[in-house]
Amino acid sequence: MPEGALEIDRVSKRYGDVVALDEMSLTVHGGEMLGFVGSNGAGKTTTMRIALGVLAADSGEVRYDGAPVDRTTRSRIGYMPEERGLYPKMKVSEQLQYLGELHGLPRADAVRSANRWTERLGLAERREDQLQKLSLGNQQRVQLAAALVHDPSVLILDEPFSGLDPVAVEVMSTVLREMRDQGVPVVFSSHQLELVQRLCDRVGIVRRGSMVADGTVEELRSSGPTRLTVHAPEAPADWAEGLPGVTVESRENGRTALRLDDTADDQRVLRAALATGPVHEFSRERPSLTELFRDVVTEETDE
Amino acid sequence: MKPTLHTVWLVARRELRARVRTRAFLLGTLFMALLVLALPVVMSFAISSAGDDGSGPLTPSEETTRIGVTPSAAGLTGPLERDAGVDEPAIAVREVADTETGKTLVHEGELDGVVAGTPTAPKLFVEQHVFPHLERALTTITYNNQLDAEMSESGLEPEAVRDRAGQGEVAIISMGSSPDAAGEPMAGTPGAEKAQRLFIAMISTFLLYMFLIMTGQMIAQGVVEEKSSRVVEVLLSTIRSTELMAGKIVGIGLTGLIQLAVLGIVGLGAATGAAVLTLPTFTVAGLLGWAALWFLLGFTLYATMLAAASSLVSRQEDLQSVITPVIMLLIVPFVVGVSVLPNNPDGTVGTVLSMIPGFSPMLMPMRLALGGVPLWQGVLSVLLSLAASAVVLWLGGRIYSNAVLRTGARVRFKDALRAS
Prior knowledge:
The complex is a heterodimer.
Chain A: E1 6-15, E2 18-28, E3 33-37, H1 44-52, E4 59-64, E5 67-68, H2 71-74, E6 77-80, H3 92-102, H4 107-120, H5 136-148, E7 154-158, H6 166-181, E8 186-189, H7 193-199, E9 202-207, E10 210-216, H8 217-223, E11 226-231, E12 246-252, E13 255-260, H9 266-274, E14 281-285, H10 289-302
Parallel strand pairs in A: 3-8, 3-9, 6-7, 7-8
Antiparallel strand pairs in A: 1-2, 1-4, 4-5, 9-10, 11-13, 11-14, 12-13
Helix pairs in contact in A: 3-4
Chain B: H1 4-20, H2 23-37, H3 39-50, E1 65-69, H4 77-83, E2 91-95, H5 99-108, E3 113-118, E4 121-126, H6 132-153, H7 158-166, H8 191-228, H9 231-236, H10 241-273, H11 281-310, H12 316-340, H13 348-353, H14 360-370, H15 375-403, H16 413-418
Parallel strand pairs in B: 1-2, 1-3
Antiparallel strand pairs in B: 3-4
């Protein structure tokens, strides 16, 4: 039962002379989890705030289920801001009930839902405590409950995993997967790329306010530059120099790490290696998300 | 699907609960209620020292003083019964056969004293008690009798002399009232009522001032608390910033109004119970109603300005610098109010200032309590204040919406007004 998709369509935003977003576009389908990565200041938080209507875009449109997001659809979104935000002196249960009611739940439903989520996230004992009396990890769980208490149709989470201990990361991951499996489009930003690679169906890499790469993890990894590791113990130091499209990244104990761009021919590399003597290893590696991301960041600093 | 009013009410209810249920609120209200209970004492001092009706210190009303008069002193009976002072114990006079009979009755406790001798040279026999009022009355009467006797001997007619002497008058001209002031001019109100009105005026102005400062601080801290804890971002993802601001102002305003009402009722009860407040209940209720209305008008104005000002900063430490100018707008009218108005409530300065929004929430309730405010002035100042509130709400809402999500450094006033 896939639900509607969340579409962010060519959204731009400037602060004076600073371009925060430049025609940012992304789509998350129902039942899909999208990891939103990019260096600090790339525009992730701004994009999310605009999707929530907390900020107004200069141009572009945010749609849910094909229709522009308005106040009614907005209250169907569950949101977890990057800098956690709840009332420090309010009791956990009252806080969640209040947020549920603000999102349009009748009082009784809000109470029920607050109880259900505190139970589910292991906070049942702390319901009547003030938020500030909880540990940071537990406060994060309350924050997650706050995003879920009104049974949202879309989840937008800004850095939900930052600062969580491994147990809490597992709880959070499980809940997010469940929501996705119920057909909810889930977007979250993170700097923990291994986690994104493990959890997400799709990844969007954002740089300087635009989406520079968007696809499944597999697609992205196969689209990046190819890396070869060649173990040819008798080869001279400069054996790979001059091969078209090939860059030597490192050389150690007869092992050479090569980076091949689109014009390079790996069979030609293999022949060159064999010409030096025996080749014990010739392996092709696809880049991890971390490496892809690093490439993006490197390009950024090159410019 | 989510009506604005309902959302505003949800926010207001949270504010109200978060504040009213705290120990600080309960203890604070209790403390202030105790202070208010002590007011009647203060008030009786204030009124007796301010009152110029010659009543002197209030002596507790004792039982009637019972006096016997011997036939030789019978001429004193009439004047004694007549001359007992208004606030003093009454004197009951009865005739006794002779001095000895009277003394016996005094011994037995039937009488408090016996007057014997003659009208010009009376003798007062008492057991042990001293009755100052009785002595005063006797002395005055004796003095007059002696005077009459001397005048008759000199060939004057005492009655005629007294009539002529009574024709001298003191002309009292009130300088304060403007020619067009209708209603109940202060010049016409008796001293005690004037003192009571002044007292109510001072107290209600002081209470208004205190509550506006207190609730204003709550607003300012509440706004910054939401900003510094970033909860505002979660809230604004589902409700409008204007709804949040309005709910906050309504909730904290109700908190203040509840406290004000509790203190008002306690204070009135205490003052009425101790019989210091003798103004008609209707008048007092009217004055309190005006005070409540002006609390609301003043609160809307100042709370909006404070909410907007506080939204410019993200930390409690930075708060003082942005709210001080607004607080000054509260302090100046208060100082002007208590220093200018009581002496000259209908002067031009007071009249004009009490109409100007910003000054009116402090000055108008005070003028109203003092009395003598034409209806049109009261209505006009309310309308002007409402108009000013509308402008401030519009501007304040704009500043608040623009600034409340911008954390970090203080947002410049100009940027907050302009940017979207």
